[in-house]
Amino acid sequence: MEGKGDIILEGKGICKGFPGVWEHLILDHIDIDVKAGEIHTLLGENGAGKTVIANCLSGFYLLSEGQILVKGKPVTLKSPRDGIRHGIGMVHQELALVKPFTVAQNIVLGLSSSDLTFPLTEVEDRVRELSEKYRLYIDPLARVEDLSAGEQQRAEIIKVLYHDPEILILDEPTSLISTDAEHLFDALNSLAKMGYGILFITHKIEEALEAGDRVTVLRLGKSMGTKETAKTDKTELVKLMFGEHTPVHLERKPVKSDKIALEVKNLEALAADEEPALQGVSFTIREGEIIGFAGISGNGQSELAEVITGLRRATRGQVVIHGKDYTNRSPGEIIRAGVSHIPEKRREMGVIEPMTVAENVVLKDIRISPFSKGPFLNMPHITGHTQEIVSRFGALVSDLWKSQTRILSGGNIQRLILGRETWRMPKCIVAVYPTQGLDAKAVNHTWELFMRLREAGSAILLVSEDLDEIMALSDRIAVMSQGKIAGMLDGGAAKREEIGLMIATGAPKT
Amino acid sequence: MNLAFLRGIFIGSLHAMVPITLTATGEVIGESSGLFNIGLEGIILMSAMTGALGAEAGGPIAGLLIGVATGAAIGLVFGSICTYFKGVQLIAGVGINLFAAGLVTFWLIDLGVPGHHAVADEGQMVDISTPLGDLSPMIIVAFVLPVLTYILLFRTKLGLKIRAVGENPQAADVAGINVHRLRLLSTVVGASLAGLAGAYISVDWMGSVTKEISAGRGFIALATVVFSGLNPMLVLLGGFIFGFFDNLAVWVSTMPAVQRVIPWQFVSMAPYIVTLLVVAGVIGRVRFPAAMGIPYERE
Amino acid sequence: MGFAAGALIMMVYGYDPISAYRALFSGAFGDLYGFSESLANATPLILTALTFAIGFRGGMFNIGAEGQLYLGALAAVTLSLLHLPPAMVFALSLICAVLAGAIWSLPVAILKATRGVHEVISTIMLNWISQFLAFYLIANILVDPMRAEKTISIAEGVRFPVLVPGTSLSYGIFISLFAAIIVYLFLWRTVIGFDIRAMGHNAMAATYAGIEKWKIIVFVFITGGFTAGLAGAVHVMGRPPTYAVYSGMPSITGLGFEGLAVAMIGRNHPIGIIISGIFFGGLLAGGRIMQLFAQVPLEMVRVVEGIVVLFLAIPELIRLFSFLRKMGPIVIFRSKRSSDEDRRRL
To answer: What is the C-alpha to C-alpha distance for residues C54 and C218, in angstroms, rounded to an integer?
Structure first.
């Protein structure tokens, strides 16, 4: 082990760009270092680049530019194996474990011994040894899929520790576990005392202050500086994370109606990996009201939208639309109930890329007259309608019927979807990250559109990570954290820092 | 019903079991790694042909080996298409079937009698005489291979890697495993076993090659794989069951008494009906590797 | 590319590919006789290809045409047992054949929709079951009392009249063409067809749009059954000189699987299928001439078919070439996500 206080891992001037994303570098000349025996937190919003830099430092991603030094010597990392060889171990946010295998089997997978061996008992013994040593208790014979989230994470950590790293990188380790955080911090502290250098990535300010010795804040790919946790506080960190902004004000009249358009009661649901995603969500939206769901993605927002629109099963609770129970009904029924859905995954779900623009514009309406007469499609009407939508919403398309939708830019696809979902002035709209990837003009148009819909009486459920958007549009702001609504704020009155704080801490202001 | 009759049926079933068990065992390895090879039927057909020719040239063992090699070669092409070239597994497999069907038919014509070719005596395998009756040594192979495969898949690190690649290729990639290479290897091994099965049919069991010689056994093997839940030991059981039905039709056609009650055509249907029922009934309970059928992309 | 491979194989065997191909094409399309034979061969192929194509457009692999067409053919034969006015028998034959095909594809649809049974396995099994069923019917119930090796013939007034005298081309070809047009209208001009295509392209988006998967499964397989059953009937009812099915079904066997190849080469589009069907029909017709003049057995055609389908499995041949160009790629691992998600999840 290096002497305490020496820098064991250092990144200098690290840059990373991704093909297809040319607006800005994902990582923009980042300098960072980790000392032996310290816990260094990396703090930032989503999109700030935290996971990317971690992946670069562990050998997952190649650097576009810059240098990595281990114990003062420059190294080139071309794969996670290289990282391991140099003593860098990374625990990913989405655990790299094979679910039906046992813990021990998962570790055997990564060993470099001969293929025909099966050193299971050896591994099991060593795992128990390591468990004791680091006080991360895990049963090597347990199957990963039977373990709780916290235990799975412990298994992943042990798996990484098995290879004897000197540097440990953990990506959002507390996003999966809620109650076991204490255990984790204890373990990390003892690891640090033993001389490990730990890089801990999080978006929660309180964790950064509590767990770390130093904290580096990242915003939009740039480092905002490194502070010692003893010498800084929440306010300063929030400012570094979110920046100073003048809010955009849109003309807003008070909500007219009292009638409830959408009501959600005690909704519970599971995520794709069978972990709980929604843990009792309740709220109402009135006609002509916009509720903005803010917060880091991954806290249940996607699942909430999916349950409401019929794309995911609710295990408990109710979805009530205009007084009628629509819980767990098919998407078709919910569409007919007047709910529009601007989906998160616009290319994978919002449109059918190999189909033409016209076909995509009428994707949902095609079943209804006058788009179809009986079983037959009414081509002239479809063409006319598409023409209108396309020009109204500014989606640049050359040929409605010939070109595949796939060739459109993301922005144009989103305009198409917006057109399709809102032309009827629907009673209920679920909009998930609706302005992602749109240019400023399009964003403004969308905001104006939403305000007009609001005036006309639509109830809008907006999910967004853009605080400006949330603040500009929402009558009420809900912050989601770990499957629950952490707090509900008044859209007009709430201040940016307040919202930012709630997002970053995951707890209501006390 | 006397003992001799029962014994005859039992022996017949054992013989019929061999190609199904061999092919299914191979496919278990392949599917565990994530590739679903529907071209097994074509592989059996091709290797029946090449095996027969090889046997005539160099004796039964040579025939079997040529069959294995044929299977391996086809497996290599199929595997490469589906891993490195990210091809759609179903289409590639169907392509193999069509290709094999055409080539074998063509070949048979070329050899003289369209549609049929009897393997010369020197080419055929000699059965071992046992108290039970004349058994082919391949039956032993058909029993041993599933056991060996079980050991491979569940008691070695290699088997762990293969199953990891089929279950969660990303995690395997992170652990440093070459996903494409391992999948290709598994498929080649699986196809080789199917090749062995095909050669067995022509060189040993039936002693001839027709263009229908595979008789859907490739697909029955696929159903056996489903039935076994990718457990080689259950493949043994499934193979025997299907082999029994496969063999039954032949027996019934020689027994006029039964013929009057159940026409031979309906008995011939039996293996396929059973397969269908098994697949329909079992499919809900059986768990396939999570990443099976999906070409792996690293981006 | 398939032809190149075929030529290679031919050369290996000592045949002359040039004269072989020349004979092939002139035999297929060179004269009226050849062309008529090509069309006659194409007639059932177009229909079975439609079966696969509809399935493919819906995202499924329906290879049950083989089994369904056996039953369609036999249904048509069965109707000739009845002594009713020929016009009525004609109509009933077609209707029953169509229904027979659909009924035989129902189990596939039900098993898939309820138990998730993969249609490839269920269709193959049903194909074999129907083959044996057909054998039984041919040998027993439908057998011609005069000549035991075949079924009774389709009654005189019920047959499709011959279009070009001296050839096997009957009016059945119009049924095939008509069916192709209907399928085109079905897939591209009706709501259900739209839904089927949507589901085939992107099941997740289709569900999002409110399309129900089980409905699609049922429609796809039933319509596929319709065309397959029709194929069997049209073939038998238009097939001089005997208008019957022989035991062992030598003339019908393989029509289903060939239809698969026809569909793939016709890119699963009715127009493409018509062209590729005529092309395949031509290969078969010309194949006989090829056999005569260049001594190349006509099964060579099957080989070429298979190779072409194999190559069709590779989604983008362009990617193939670029892969070859960057040999020894650097290993970069990234899970597959769109760039939007990438940026958000960072």
So the answer is: 12
β-strand partners of C265: none
Instruction: Determine the residue type at C130.
Output: S
Among A46, A62, A343, beta carbon nearest to C208:
A343
**Tens of pLDDT, residue by residue, chain A (510 residues):** 445 677 888 888 888 876 655 556 778 888 888 888 889 998 887 667 787 888 888 887 788 888 898 888 888 888 777 888 888 888 877 777 888 888 888 888 877 777 777 778 888 888 888 888 877 788 888 888 888 777 888 888 888 888 888 899 988 887 666 556 677 788 888 888 888 899 988 877 778 888 888 999 888 778 888 888 888 887 788 778 776 655 556 667 777 777 888 888 888 888 876 778 888 899 999 888 899 998 777 788 888 999 999 999 999 999 999 889 999 999 999 999 999 999 988 888 888 888 888 888 888 988 887 888 878 888 888 888 888 888 888 776 666 777 777 777 777 888 889 889 998 889 999 999 888 767 777 788 888 889 889 888 899 999 988 888 888 888 899 988 878 888 888 877 777 778 877 877 765 544
A93 in reach of chain B (CB within 8 A) = no
Q: Which of residues 104-133 of B touch C (CB under 8 A)?
A: 105-106, 109-110
Q: Which fold has domain C2-345?
A: ABC transporter involved in vitamin B12 uptake, BtuC (1.10.3470)
The answer to whether A287 and A304 are in contact (CB under 8 A) is: no
Interface of C with B in 166-205 (CB under 8 A): none
Give the span between the Cα atoms of B24 and A335, in whole angstroms: 46
Kindly provide the ipTM of the predicted complex, given to two decimals.
0.76
Contact indicator for A330, A319 with CB cutoff of 8 Å = no
CB-based burial, C302-317: b 16+ in 10 Å, e otherwise: bbbbbbbbbbbbbeee
Residue A241 near residue A500, CB atoms below 8 Å = yes
Q: How far apart are the CA of C50 and the nearest CA of chain A, in angstroms? A: 20
Nearest alpha-carbon partner for A76 in A103, A104, A95, A57:
A57
Which residues constitute the domain of residue A191?
A: 7-242
- Domain holding B191: CATH number? 1.10.3470
- Looking at A242, A269, A297, the residue that finishes a domain is A242
Interchain CB contact of B177 with A (< 8 Å): yes
Rounded Cα gap, residues B187 and B71, in angstroms? 10
C334 interaction partners in chain B (CB closer than 8 Å) = 298-299
Residues of C contacting chain A (CB within 8 angstroms): 189-192, 194, 197-198, 201-202, 204-212, 330-334, 338-346
Tokens read off for B299: 């981006």
B140 at the A interface (CB within 8 A)? no
At residue B254, the 3 state secondary structure works out as coil
Contact A316, A268 (CB under 8 A): yes
- Per the structure, the count of domains in chain A is 3
Under an 8 A CB cutoff, do A116 and B161 touch? Answer: no
